[in-house]
Design brief:
The chain is built from 65 helices and 4 strands. The chain is an all-alpha fold and 1459 residues long. It has a two-stranded parallel sheet with strand order 1-2. Strands 3-4 form a two-stranded parallel sheet. Helix 25 links the parallel strand 3 and strand 4.
Length: 1459
């Protein structure tokens, strides 16, 4: 029963609870059960202790802990339905907590109490609404960390410890754990860790305790930092009692654990493993904390400072001293978290971690095993895979004057490590590096935009001095407006020295001015935007290149370095110096700050020495210690650039920061000046701390620290200074006062534990002061990351230019070193990755118009399938189908050539050569025939209307003919008559099923590669790439002519294939033929001029190609008509015998050419060549009708003043060939082509008529009187007469009769054509009269071959008479008419004499003479008419007349005239 006092202790128990309050009843029963469990444990002798501590008679006596539990048990029984929320938990927790702290109880009892506490904590007894629950939960943690018990045995003790750890974990994680204070949270974490610490725990305990302890610590960490995260983002339901301070304490504890493990010095292997495990656990806890807190970490400046300084320094120490795989991995993962969560303010720290630690380990420095190096490479790979990391690193490191070229160094290292040393030596490190390269390339390709930014030209200079050093010292961003303005000026060179970017083809590159204009519009009236900052970074990278040159000069000779800086306007000129005077006279330095006074120049130099990277630190120290006033000013400015106001920068940290930036000179006076400047500056910035009374005190202490460092760390000093001695030496130096002992003690032990040292970039041991300085920088704008998101494309070109060379070389090397015979799944993955990387690199290059990349890739990859030509013992297609590497590389090559052919130039040679190799090996699929189809009209098929032979059949035919030796070069007619063989590989029947399957794989793969698309889609290539493709095709044809013994006829089919490919490319690029024609012309010239030494089939196809090209291009490309027509002239170079052998082809192609393009042939030499070809091929019976048809087309449709005099003789040639020749018997007879004679005679008439019509049109135009027109008219008429005279000499009566009629018509037409008398006289004297005389001799001889010759002579005489009658007056006025008349008289006399037996002539000639005399009677025919030589023409005339006709006298003529 309860007493009154009990009701006072439990006020809620006095009130009756509601019936059915099951929750309260459950809690009561829970407490009762736990009390009973503890009492049971205490009453068990076997569990109380190993040896019972009481006798049998003492069993009934109560123990000192029994009363509390017995009383508690009695008190709660009547109150089965009490409201436990109103009960102070300490009432029922006190007995358990007392027991858990008791040192005189055994482990099982303590364990029972701990179990009870666990169940109470997770029950509903302790909720946020419970009275005084905060004090209770804090008391639980406090007492649990003070737990003590008597040891029983190892197993039992370990269980007890596990229960205590569980109590601590549950206390933190439970609902009311939010009420724990920062101190208790830290105690809980520390207690849980210490209970399982493998260093401090007894060796008898197993590993279970350590494992569970660490798991509990991890869960605590997630809980505490999770609550901190919720508090930061406002998601916490209630503000926890603990917060940032507890998290800071835990983080400090973890950092101290890492440092503690580094301070132990060398240890044996076992201890080293324990320390390594400890470090690994600690790093894992740190990673858990960062991962839990996430991006909210950036809101807690104290935690950020811990991470930036203490954690990173401890991590670097750990990974250097314990470079195990697990620690390196943990180091990398923490770096990854830092970049992901607080990368915005950690760019400087990440640069140091990568450049000085991770990259060096990945390069094999500081590591012992290959696995450790691979772990470092995996860390780099993880970072590279993060979205934006690659660009962020480049923008914030490589494009920053004061930072390392981290991106470039990273790519160089990865590429170098990815390169296999020997064939087949690829391993995990190569795979990791390949993945990293692929990740970088993918990042660049992903961020790629159609319009890439063209980087500034290397020649771009600052127009005036730009003070970049002050912003760098102050931590501000540079905004290089001067340099950008200079780049954006019209006419400036804006991209890699290539001039104006707008002239580049394809529109794929934007110049700086375009970006600037767009940026001005988007940010008008605002401050620098992110995009502007990114553009500024581009130009900062440009300046960095120049600065690196200045650094080289400075390190060799500071004066020359300064001069270079001034020349590049990175440093002002000194007022009054010769350089300043010369600049003013030349007008080169016109900016307001280009020339400065000494103080300003010294300030600039001081800031330059402080922030410029790569300067020799020894040279800096020597300059700073110089006694001249100018150098003293530099020293003051240099010293002022340090920020010592941060509370974290203690005195020893400050002097470390200062002395790590340069090397102290050896001269004592220089050291004194430098340390004095440090003391003044440190005192000025720390007066508020009230430690130093004057700057001299700071100076003396700084000098004493340097002396202490020498004393403690110089091996020659035997008697080391003690801390008391150090304090004693500094008594009264602080303006006669002493420094605080604690202050001096901290400095002393800091120097003793860690000496002052010069920080070098090559060292992996990064000091804490470096991270302290970086943390200061991270709080400035300069130290914060400029995110590359708004304009990543600005840097893609520059980034890719930096990395593609070594990256492509490395990946190509991986491909080369993968051995097909040992192609494991891992190697297959590596091969695929390398090919994917090369394809991605080519894609990026195509976007940025970088041709060298694709060429390099193709040249390297093409070596793999080219090895197929050396395969022996197995059919090539079978070997190819078996070789997975060769197939994959070929697929990649085809994809690059088809998708990114724009980037290929020299690489086309390898692509075409590979295609030719496949052809030679009879592996090209039939789908490739599309590439031989010209522009879709059958290509150069030598059998029009019939399907072209398959590629394999062509190759087989060529190989079979190559065995015949020189006899292969026979007529094309014979070659075309050969049957087309079906593909029949040697040994086809002996192939196994597997071989056939492999051959099928080859066929399918090469079909999918679509090599034919390269040629059929060549119209989409850029100009330069297309020109190189044409050159590659021509080069693959081989030399023409071949050298003796250089391959025989088997190679000519390859030349034919290439010619067909060339034909296709030219036709499909007719709009750009002008750039392709010069090389094409040379190729055709080589074929035609060496036609006797070239395969006839190649010559035939070349003729077809040339004529068809001209036929299709001339109507569309008038601007290159002259080069095209020169191409037609090339055909005339073909040897006559070769041309005769392929007459049908030439005839058909010439006909098609003239039908399609005759109006566009505007050069006489071309018509000469065409007609010359027809003259050669007309002897072929099958070609003659085509020649006639060709001339008919020209005469009727395309006669012009330019081709008239060329076409007409060709018509006459054909006419003469058409006339049968039966003069001799036997083989000399020629049947001719009588059926074509009327047509050809009609062409003569048509030609004459055309001339008349032409003059009719021209005579009415202004061209009528032009000399050129007159000359053509006279020449054309004369040629008509000449050709008719030539035809009249023909034996065929029909031909002669028709031609004489046409001649008479031409003589009459001379008057219509206004032919001059001189031309008429010439025609009579040189053509008509001599021909009449010749035919007259045939009349007198009675030649049978000239049937009815007298009729022809009569008509010729009539033609002469018509000419004389029409031109009587002009002829008589000629001074040479006497000679003409004498020739006429002689001709008539000869004809009369020869035809004395012909009635036709005896009647016609006197009549003709009479008609002429009648006309001349009114003119010159008078007595006294004398020729130039004195001959009496009057007498001569009548003498000849008397012979011809005795009745014809002057009197008779006079009477006839009067009549």
């Amino acid at each position: 029963m309860t007493t009154t006092g009990d009701h006072q202790r439990f006020p809620s128990l006095a009130r009756s609870s509601r019936p059915g309050s099951t929750i309260q009843q459950r809690l009561t029963l829970l407490l009762n059960h736990e009390i009973a469990a503890v009492e049971t444990a205490m009453r068990s002798p076997s569990k109380w202790a190993v040896v019972p501590r009481y006798y049998e008679e003492d069993r009934n006596e109560p123990g000192k802990y029994d009363d509390a539990f017995r009383s508690l048990r009695a008190e709660i029984q009547p109150s089965k339905h009490a409201d436990w929320a109103k009960v102070d938990p300490m009432v029922y927790l006190s007995p358990f907590l007392t027991l858990i702290k008791a040192s005189d109880v055994s482990g099982p009892v303590t364990g029972a109490a701990a179990v009870a506490l666990q169940r109470i904590i997770i029950s509903e007894l302790m909720t946020l609404g419970t009275h005084n629950v905060g004090a209770a939960i804090n008391r639980i943690v406090e007492d649990a960390t003070l737990s003590k018990f008597e040891s029983t045995n190892n197993a039992q003790d370990e269980i007890v410890l596990l229960n205590i750890v569980q109590v601590l974990g549950m206390a933190v994680e439970c609902e009311v754990g939010v009420l724990l204070t920062d101190v208790q949270v830290f105690k809980a974490f520390q207690g849980a860790f210490m209970l399982g610490d493998p260093v401090t725990k007894p060796k008898e305990y197993g590993d279970i305790m350590a494992y569970y302890s660490r798991q509990t610590c991890g869960q605590m960490l997630r809980t505490v930092f999770g609550r901190l995260r919720n508090q930061a983002n406002g998601k916490a339901d209630a503000a926890p009692a603990h917060g940032i301070n507890g998290a800071v304490e835990i983080m400090d504890f973890l950092i101290d654990l890492i440092k503690k493990d580094q301070a132990g010095g060398k240890a044996d292997a076992g201890q080293d493993q324990v320390m390594e495990d400890q470090i690994m656990f600690t790093l894992d806890m740190v990673h858990t904390a960062l991962l839990t807190l996430g991006p909210e970490l950036i809101h807690f400046e104290v935690l950020v400072a811990q991470v930036h300084v203490g954690l990173l320094h401890a991590m670097c120490q750990a990974v250097v001293s314990h470079a195990s795989v697990s620690i390196i991995n943990a180091f990398s993962q923490i770096m990854l978290c830092i970049y992901s969560f607080i990368g915005t303010i950690s760019v400087c720290q990440l640069e140091v971690l990568l450049e000085r630690v991770l990259l060096k380990m990945a390069d094999g420095k500081g590591v012992v095993t290959v696995e450790q190096q691979e772990a470092a490479l995996e860390g780099i790979l993880d970072l590279c895979r993060q979205p934006g990391f690659v660009h962020d690193v480049f923008v914030n490191c490589d494009c920053r004057l004061e930072r390392a070229n981290l991106f470039q160094d990273m790519c160089t290292l990865i590429s170098k490590t990815a390169y296999p040393l020997t064939k087949g030596s690829t391993g995990p490190s190569h795979f990791i590096c390949q993945e990293a390269l692929l990740a970088i390339l993918t990042a660049i390709a992903t961020e790629n935009k159609p319009n890439a930014f063209m980087a500034p030209s290397p020649e771009l200079e600052l127009p005036c001095f730009a003070d970049v050093w002050t912003p760098l010292v102050q931590g501000d961003l540079l905004y290089l407006r001067e340099l950008m303005d200079a780049a954006e000026e019209p006419g400036s060179s804006n991209g890699d020295g290539s001039g104006d970017a707008s002239s580049s083809s394809g529109g794929g590159v934007e110049c700086a001015a375009a970006h600037a204009e767009a940026d001005r519009r988007s940010t008008a009236g605002a401050g620098p935007s992110d995009f502007q900052r990114l553009r500024s970074a581009v130009y900062e990278k440009h300046m960095k290149r120049k600065l690196s040159v200045a650094v080289e000069h400075f390190n060799k000779d500071p004066k020359k370095g300064l001069q270079f800086l001034q020349a590049t306007r990175l440093m002002p000129l000194l007022e009054g110096s010769p350089a300043a005077k010369a600049a003013r006279e030349a007008g080169t330095h016109t900016g307001p700050s280009d020339i400065m006074h000494e103080d300003a120049l010294a300030a600039c130099l001081g800031r330059f020495l402080r922030v410029c990277p790569g300067l020799d630190k020894g040279a800096i120290g020597e300059l700073l210690g110089e006694p001249a006033d100018f150098y003293m000013k530099i020293l003051e400015e240099y010293t002022r650039s340090f920020d010592f106001r941060d509370a974290a920068v203690t005195f020893d940290a400050g002097i470390r920061l200062f002395l790590e930036s340069f090397r102290l000179p050896g001269e004592a006076q220089k050291i004194d000046r430098i340390i004095n400047a440090f003391g003044r500056h440190y005192y000025a910035e720390n007066q508020a701390a009230n430690i130093f009374k004057s700057s001299d005190a700071a100076y003396v202490l700084a000098y004493s620290v340097i002396m202490l460092n020498t004393d403690q760390h110089n091996k020659q000093v035997k008697n080391k200074m003690t801390v008391d001695g150090f304090r004693r030496n500094l008594r009264g130096v602080n303006d006669r006062e002493n420094f605080p002992d604690e202050f001096l003690n901290d400095i002393f032990y800091s120097i003793v534990n860690e000496p002052l040292k010069l920080e070098t970039a090559s060292s992996m041991d990064v000091s804490e002061q470096v991270f302290l300085g970086l943390h200061q920088t991270s709080r400035t704008l300069r130290g914060q990351m400029v995110h590359s998101d708004p304009g990543r494309h600005l840097f893609d070109t520059t980034m890719f230019r930096l990395m593609w060379g070594p990256a492509v070389h490395a990946m190509c090397s991986i491909v080369d070193n993968v051995v097909s015979e040992r192609l494991t799944p891992a190697l297959w993955t590596m091969l695929e990755g390398a090919l994917a990387g090369l394809t991605t690199a080519t894609h990026i290059a195509s976007m940025h118009q970088l041709e060298d990349v694709a060429d390099s890739v193709v040249v390297n990859l093409s070596k793999v399938p080219a090895q197929l030509a050396n395969v022996s013992g197995v059919r090539p297609d079978v070997a190819f189908g078996r070789d997975a590497k060769m197939r994959e590389v070929t697929r990649a090559l085809a994809a690059i050539a088809n998708k990114h052919g724009d980037c290929l130039q020299a690489g086309w040679t390898n692509v075409v050569d590979l295609i030719v190799t496949f052809y030679r090996l009879q592996m090209l699929p039939e789908a490739f025939a599309r590439a031989l189809d010209g522009d879709g009209e059958g290509g150069l098929n030598m059998k029009p209307g019939e399907p072209a032979p398959s590629l394999k059949a062509r190759r087989m035919l060529a190989k079979s003919q190559s065995n015949g030796g020189p006899s292969i070069y026979r007529s094309i007619t014979y070659m075309l008559a050969l049957p087309t063989p079906e593909p029949d590989f040697s040994g086809e029947r002996s192939l196994t099923e597997g071989d056939r399957a492999d051959a099928g794989v080859t066929e399918e793969l090469l079909s999918r590669c679509c090599f034919e698309d390269i040629f059929t889609d060549s119209k989409f290539l850029k100009q330069d790439s297309l020109v190189h493709l044409v050159k590659a095709i021509i080069w693959a044809s081989g030399p023409i002519p071949r050298q003796p013994g250089a391959g025989g006829a088997a190679n000519w089919d390859v030349a034919e294939l290439c010619l067909e490919l060339l034909f296709t490319v030219l036709l499909r690029n007719r709009d750009r033929i002008s750039s392709l024609w010069p090389r094409t012309y040379e190729h055709f010239h080589a074929i035609f001029s060496n036609s006797r030494d070239v395969a006839p089939s190649l010559v035939q196809k070349a003729i077809m190609a040339m004529l068809r090209l001209c036929q299709r291009l001339l109507p569309y490309k008038t601007d290159i008509s002259e080069p095209l027509m020169k191409g037609i002239q090339l055909v005339s170079l073909v040897d006559e015998q070769v041309a005769s052998d392929m007459a049908q082809t030439i005839a058909a192609e010439v006909l098609n050419l003239l039908k399609g393009a005759a109006p566009y042939i505007q050069h006489q030499p071309v018509w000469v060549s065409i007609c010359g070809l027809l003259k050669i091929i007309q002897y072929d019976p099958a070609s003659f009708p085509v020649c006639v048809e060709t001339m008919a087309w020209v005469v009727k449709e395309s006669l012009t003043p330019m081709n008239f005099t060329i076409v007409l003789p060709t018509v006459v040639d054909l006419l003469e060939r058409a006339v049968p020749d039966m003069r001799t018997k036997g083989q000399g007879q020629r049947p001719g082509y009588p059926q074509h004679i009327p047509d050809l005679l009609g062409l003569l008439l048509s030609s004459e008529e055309w001339l008349e019509l032409w003059w009719l049109g021209v005579s009415r135009s202004p061209q009528a009187g032009e000399p050129q027109t007159e000359s053509f008219k006279h020449d054309a008429w004369y040629q008509v007469v000449s050709m008719l005279c030539r035809v009249i000499k023909n034996q065929n009566l029909e031909v002669r009769s028709t031609a004489v009629g046409y001649l008479q018509r031409s003589v009459v037409a001379a008057e219509k054509l206004c032919i001059g008398v001189e031309q008429v006289e010439q025609a009579l004297m040189q053509l008509v009269l001599p021909m009449t005389n010749d035919l007259s001799t045939h009349v007198s001889g009675g030649a049978r071959e000239f049937a009815q010759c007298e009729v022809t002579v009569r008509e010729l005489v009539r033609a002469v008479v018509k000419g004389v009658l029409l031109y009587s007056e002009p002829l008589q006025q000629l001074p040479t008419f006497g000679g003409v008349w004498r020739a006429i008289l002689e001709c008539l006399s000869t004809a009369m004499t020869s035809g004395s037996k012909s009635e036709l002539l005896t009647e016609a000639i006197p009549e003709a003479l009479k008609n002429m005399l009648l006309v001349l009677q009114a003119g010159n025919l008078k007595p006294g008419w004398v020729d130039n030589d004195g001959t009496d023409l009057h007498a001569l005339t009548w003498a000849v007349a008397k012979k011809i006709s005795p009745n014809l006298t002057p009197q008779q003529l006079g009477s006839s005239s009067s009549v």
